[in-house]
Design a protein that fits this description.
single chain, about 425 residues, globular
Length: about 425
């Protein structure tokens, strides 16, 4: 069995092994296991049955991660996306008064559009149109984003009305626990301990439990609960003219968030080929497109590639087996979902901060002396964390790159799709400004 796995997942070529891949999968899972509880709590605000959404969250994440691992053979895990679930609940359902069944129909239609765009090769063309100069900027920007989320989860950074953000109360027990975990992971990595991030997460969670800092309130839950949301989407309602813009938002944000995650994780794991392209790109795109269809069918919002996959890559994950392990753990979580509530955010926050720091190494690949490269790269890097959106970061970087090139000699040597996408991004900014 070991030889079969090694051959199929190309361990020797990628410089990895079974133990490393399993550790990496466990690390990725623990950094994103919060979605098992956060997603149902958000979608529950839209009136969806919480227990059913819990089961749907686990099932869709398992399907997406297993598809990515087995078919595309990449260490990228999938699950219902944060941000899109909030848009689903607070904007579409509560703000627009759309029933959750109709909103699920909009998610399903965006998944169908995703599959069709993948089938005709549009998504692949979009990814290939991204200037290679921006690849490193996207990875670094997402590194800043991940670290920012980790610092916020740790309570080190908090909101402030005057300065937007400020230093939190470092004497808070949860913040002290997170800082202790950050120190532990950093020391273990400096000592080159294998699985340092996973050890840090588990040790910090154990310390939190001993100190009474881990809330655990399990609710009654069975797999049969999923019947309350499975195949309950309303396609007829979603096809109405008023929801076409909702379908577009699901499609647009998912498309460019996934592209950003793919570029960042692929760059970090050194999965690009000599011409800076990603092998088996169509399989990757099919995996996340079909995962959204499964998510909408079972009862959850759009399923996306998770940037927390970078934690597994930092732990040594290089092959699809990392994603397979994540998928299997999500399947197990379907049966014991309440148990994963004992992993506090203070335990996963240090991992996000460390991973963010590791991803910043790609910034050295940017030609900072060349304004054509440096300015779009900087706008990409700074916009991702400050707007809390990978899609916005790509939009600023892509648009600025296209505008600069358009004003220089040799402007028509640039891929025409660069200008077409820049125009689309500009139209999006105009649309967002009108809705503000």
């Amino acid at each position: 069995m070991h030889a079969l796995l090694a051959r199929y997942f190309e361990f020797e070529k990628l410089g990895t092994n079974l133990r490393t891949e399993v550790l990496a999968g466990c690390t990725t899972f623990l950094t994103m296991a919060y979605i098992i509880f956060v997603n149902p709590s958000i979608l529950g605000q839209a009136g969806m049955p919480v227990a059913a959404v819990t089961a749907a969250t686990c099932l869709s994440a398992a399907f997406g991660s297993l598809s990515m691992g087995l078919l595309a053979r990449y260490p990228i895990a999938l699950a219902p996306g944060m941000g899109l679930n909030a848009y689903f609940a607070y904007v579409v359902c509560l703000g627009m008064g759309v029933p959750w069944q109709t909103a699920l129909g909009a998610v399903f239609l965006s998944g169908v559009a995703f599959v069709l765009l993948t089938l005709v090769g549009v998504r692949r063309l979009v990814i290939q149109a991204i200037p290679t100069e921006l690849y490193a900027a996207v990875a670094s920007g997402i590194g800043l984003f991940i670290a920012f989320v980790g610092l916020r989860n740790a309570g080190v950074i908090v909101a402030d009305n005057a300065t937007l953000v400020t230093l939190g109360n470092l004497r808070e027990p949860g913040t002290l626990l997170a800082l202790g975990g950050l120190t532990l992971v950093a020391v273990l990595m400096a000592l080159r301990v294998r699985g340092a991030i996973l050890v840090g997460i588990l040790a910090t969670a154990a310390a939190g439990a001993l100190l009474g800092l881990v809330p655990w309130n399990p609710q009654p839950y069975t797999l049969a609960e999923i019947s309350a949301t499975a195949f309950q989407f309303d396609l007829k309602g979603a096809l109405s003219l008023g929801l076409l813009e909702v379908v577009f938002v699901f499609l647009f944000v998912d498309l460019f968030d996934n592209i950003g995650t793919l570029v960042a994780v692929g760059k970090q794991a050194k999965l690009f080929d000599g011409s800076q392209r990603i092998p088996r790109i169509q399989r990757i795109l099919y995996a996340d497109a079909t995962a959204t269809l499964v998510g909408a069918s079972t009862g959850t919002s759009t399923v996306v590639s998770y940037i927390e996959s970078a934690a597994g890559v930092a732990a040594g994950g290089r092959s699809g087996l990392t994603a397979v392990v994540v998928g299997l753990l999500f399947l197990m979580a379907m049966f014991v979902a309440p148990l994963f509530g004992i992993i506090p955010v203070a335990a996963t926050a240090p991992a996000l901060i460390i991973v963010g720091s590791l991803m910043m190494t790609t910034a050295s690949e940017i030609e900072w002396q060349n304004p054509v490269t440096a300015i779009p790269a900087f706008l990409t890097m700074i916009s991702i964390p400050l707007t809390f959106s990978i899609a916005n970061g790509l939009a600023f970087g892509f648009t600025s790159y296209a505008l600069i090139r358009l004003c220089l000699p040799g402007r028509w040597q640039v891929n025409w799709l660069v200008y077409a996408l820049a125009a689309l991004f500009l139209a999006r900014f105009v649309y967002l400004a009108q809705g503000a």
